[in-house]
Structures are given as structure tokens and as C-alpha cells.
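From the methods appendix. Each design record in this collection lists the discretized structure first, followed by the designed amino acid sequence. Records were kept in a plain field format so they could be parsed without special tools. The example shown here is representative of the layout used throughout.

RECORD:
C-ALPHA CELLS (297 positions):
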């Protein structure tokens, strides 16, 4: 395992190993596992959790990180992706990239001789979902056999969560309007694995008896021109008190943040007793550290 580009790169054993490592690193915050090592942080999109968790994570592991803004690199514009990958491989010990196109991360991994981590692309968000799996494991004590209801657009988070559920033996139920379901390619990746995928247009059906309710913004970065249409199409897909009441009594509510209150989630819901959203956010730090140690130590 040189890189982390997709959840599909991992086995159930790999995922559990990362969860166990993240929990241990959560107990012992400061270490020297990556002393003397440097991580390049490439950003084409703005970020709070991804940037801070990787930056602080490297510091707490005894290493160092360098932030590279869109203007400084201009991936594929100012300089070809393969040249950036080749040059950075001579300077640093790892590359984390948060990009628009998934192919950009794929190309970085292809041409870099150091590990490349997908910090988010238009297709997947593996680091987020690995932290989410850690959170579910901490709250429920297991992954296999749980049911996860995802309410909203089949975006990058939904894709990675779908694959993660399939790999670890969880049932993934997605409720979305017509035209917003997971792609055939993503469903094909999940086919034949341990978990089950259910697609419906009824949020109550998805949530009924669920262990986990997960939602995300209706309009992702780069889709701003579609926001009015998406608000109309997703009317009725809001996670609120009435919807949560259909799930199990001990259901947990998850959201990767940032949230658009009044759209995908009702105001106040992320501070509801069922919400573990800020535990999720904290676990981004611990899981990023587990990933960094796995790839760069």
C-alpha cells in the first residue's frame, strides 16, 4: 500500500487496522513516529478540517508540513501534474492533495515516488470516511451488521461511505431524488463485497431502524450554479427531529461539515443528543495521523 486514493484500495483488515491505530494515537497525542519527515499539502479547494488535521497531525508526530495554495502550483495549468509529482518527490516524504478532479490525485500517485493521499476529490473523500468509521466503531463497538442511512446527494462522501460499508459488512441505504443516485461504476466497485446497498427515494424508508444517519450538503464545491435547482430537488430530504424518530432509539447522527442549516439538516440538529458530528470532526485528526504513520513511517 503506497497510496490512499480510494476506500476501495483497502480491505476490511486494513480499515480495522487504521481504526485501531487512530484510537491508540488518540490516547497518546504526541510522538516522534515521523520525526524529520515533511508532508506537502496541495489544495485546489478551501478547507478547515483537512488542512488543520494534517498540519497538526504532522506536528504531533514530530514531522513538518508545507501548505501549497492553488496559485503557487496551478496543477495542470502552470505546470503538468507529472512534473509537480516528480519534483515534490525529491523534496518531501509524502503528498496530500485536495483537488477538484479525481484524476489529478490518480496522476499524482502515478508519477510520485512518495505516498500520495487523497484529501478530497470530486469522486471520493476516503480520509473523511475513515474517520467516520472510527467514530461509528467508538460509539457502537463494531461495524459489521450495522445499517447506515445516507440522506442526500451521492457525492464524494457518499461514494466513499458506500464502498466502506460494502467492504466492512454494513448495510448502506441511500435516500435521494431521481438523478442523484450513486453511479453504475461506483455500484460495480461495491458489488460482491460483504455489505448490502439499498437505493430509495424515501428518506423514512432509508432511516427506519437505522443505526447511523448520515447527511451532507446538497450542493458541493464546484456545483454552486446548481444550488437553486438542488434545493428544489432535495425538498423533503432534510434530516430533522421527525426523521430521526423513525430510526433506532440509539441512532447516531453524522455530518462531515460544513453544514447548511435549514437545508440538508434542520437548525440545532447537530447539537441534538444523537449527534456525534464534533466527535467526527475531532477524529479527522487522529485518523489522518494513523494514515500518515501507515504510509510514511
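DESIGN:
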Amino acid at each position: 500500500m503506497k497510496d490512499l486514493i480510494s476506500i476501495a484500495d483497502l480491505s476490511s483488515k486494513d480499515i480495522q487496522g487504521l481504526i485501531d491505530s487512530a484510537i491508540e494515537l488518540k490516547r497518546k497525542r504526541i510522538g516522534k513516529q515521523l520525526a524529520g519527515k515533511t508532508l506537502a499539502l496541495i489544495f485546489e479547494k478551501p478547507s478547515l478540517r483537512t488542512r488543520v488535521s494534517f498540519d497538526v497531525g504532522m506536528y504531533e508526530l514530530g514531522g513538518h508540513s508545507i501548505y501549497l495554495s492553488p496559485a503557487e502550483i496551478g496543477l495542470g495549468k502552470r505546470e503538468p501534474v507529472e512534473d509537480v509529482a516528480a519534483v515534490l518527490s525529491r523534496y518531501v516524504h509524502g503528498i496530500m492533495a485536495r483537488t477538484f478532479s479525481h484524476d489529478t490525485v490518480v496522476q499524482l500517485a502515478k508519477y510520485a515516488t512518495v505516498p500520495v493521499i487523497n484529501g478530497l476529490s470530486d469522486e471520493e473523500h476516503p480520509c473523511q470516511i475513515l474517520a467516520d468509521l472510527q467514530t461509528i466503531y467508538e460509539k457502537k463497538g463494531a461495524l459489521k451488521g450495522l445499517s447506515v442511512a445516507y440522506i442526500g446527494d451521492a457525492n464524494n462522501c457518499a461514494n466513499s461511505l458506500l464502498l466502506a460499508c460494502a467492504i466492512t459488512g454494513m448495510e448502506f441505504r441511500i435516500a435521494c431524488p431521481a438523478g442523484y443516485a450513486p453511479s453504475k461504476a461506483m455500484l460495480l466497485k461495491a458489488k460482491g463485497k460483504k455489505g448490502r446497498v439499498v437505493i430509495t427515494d424515501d428518506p423514512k424508508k432509508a432511516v427506519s431502524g437505522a443505526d447511523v444517519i448520515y447527511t451532507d450538503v446538497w450542493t458541493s464545491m464546484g456545483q454552486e450554479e446548481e444550488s437553486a435547482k438542488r434545493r428544489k430537488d432535495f425538498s423533503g430530504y432534510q434530516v430533522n427531529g421527525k426523521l430521526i424518530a423513525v430510526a433506532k432509539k440509539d441512532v447516531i447522527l453524522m455530518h462531515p461539515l460544513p453544514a447548511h442549516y435549514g437545508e440538508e439538516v434542520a437548525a440545532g440538529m447537530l447539537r441534538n443528543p444523537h449527534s456525534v458530528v464534533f466527535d467526527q470532526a475531532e477524529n479527522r485528526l487522529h485518523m489522518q495521523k494513523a494514515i500518515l504513520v501507515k504510509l510514511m513511517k
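APPENDIX NOTE: The mean pLDDT is 96.
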